[in-house]
Every structure is written in structure tokens, then in C-alpha cells.
Amino acid sequence: RVIPSEPGNVTTSSLAGADFENMRINDISRVAPDPKTGDVRITMDAQRRVTLEGSIDDPRIQQLLVYAVKSYDNAGIRRDTLDALRARTKSPNVRAALLYTMEHDSNVGNRLAALDAVRGMEGGDDLQQSLIEVLEHDRNMGVRVESVDVLVDHVEKEGRDEAILSALERLATN
Fold it and tell me: Contact, 118 vs 127, CB < 8 A?
């Protein structure tokens, strides 16, 4: 049985038949054998591996993917998450996550992948502002060049936009 170390943290349940191969043991803080009974008490922090499967339209899955693309440490997982999200760019949460990644991801490849994902997105002030922000401030020249290409694509698709043209002219003089 599982005994909570602090009230309310863990529910008491049976570990009979538990799958320890799919459980990540983070910390074993105590192993206390009872010489009278032969039982042992193990105090540990553990996480169970969970597989979540379903439609990207499921709010729980979408929320987890948005969290992963914005906050997860592993750049490869963030990239795989971008690939999953790119099919749902009309969702406001996905759109915001892609724009965030474009501007803030520490990995150049992920910023480029986000730029590629927004290439087919419907235009809007948020997209325009993010592209200009990347163009003006990204430290990688390849990312800045790609943002110009995406801006130009949007101008060609949606027509002349004075704010974009003004930003491009301002940057051309620098």
C-alpha cells in the first residue's frame, strides 16, 4: 500500500501488480525494514509513465502540447510538438504558441520550424508583430532572413501592408 508522506499529496492505493518498469523513481529517501515482521517501508517520490492518445482537438492534448512547445527542456520534443501543432494553426492557443516559439525558443532549428509553420497561417496583427520582432531582434541571420521571406509571402497573399513595408524599409537602411 502507498502511505502518503504528507496529508493530501498521495492517495492510498495498492501497488499489487504495479508496473515498476513504467514508473520513474525520482528519490528514495528511506528504506526501513521491520525485523519483527520482515516487512519493509520504502519512502520515495515516483512518477508513473503515462501515454496520452487522441485528437489534437482535444483540449487536454492541445494544452499539453502548448505547454511542451513553450516550456519543455528537450529541444527535440519541442520540435516534435511543433510538427504536431502545425496542423491546427487556427486555434488561438496553438497560434500563440507558434508565435511564442518563433520569438523565444532557444533552438535556432525550432525557431525556423515555427516560422515555417506560420507561413501558411492566416494573417493578423499578432503574426505581423511577431515577424517584425523576429526580423528586428533575432540573433541568428538565417532566422531573420526567413522572417523576411514569410513577411513577403503574407504581403503577396494579403496585399500591400504599410506597417510591414515601413518595417522593411527601416531595416533596409540599417
Answer: yes
